[in-house]
Amino acid sequence: MAHIRSDETVASALRASDAGVTDAENAARHEVAIKTIRRWRREYQRRGKPRGQRHLLAQCPRCAGAPLD
């Protein structure tokens, strides 16, 4: 699944949030919804998830070194 916002936009918004910019101002500055700013902070900063959907995919047991059925 492709992302609508570029990695640069997300990184810029997260930097602004770290600098104390309010969610409303940050959302207006980056032309996204306030909920989007909050989700980015929650997922990428607090939970440390990587951007994208790779973290949701099941790992190959052979590649992960897990036993095969």
What does this 3D model show about the protein?
Helix content is 54%, strand content 0%. It is mainly alpha-helical. The radius of gyration is 16 Å and the shape is elongated. The two termini are 30 Å apart.
Global shape: elongated
Spatial separation of the terminal alpha carbons: 30 Å
How many strands? 0
* Oligomeric category: single chain
Structural class: mainly alpha
**Percent of residues in β-strands:** under 5%
What can be said about this structure in brief?
This protein is an all-alpha fold and 69 residues long. The protein contains four helices and no strands.
List the helices and strands and how they pair.
Blueprint: H1 7-18, H2 23-30, H3 34-46, H4 61-64
List the defining traits of the structure above.
single chain; 69 residues; mainly alpha; elongated
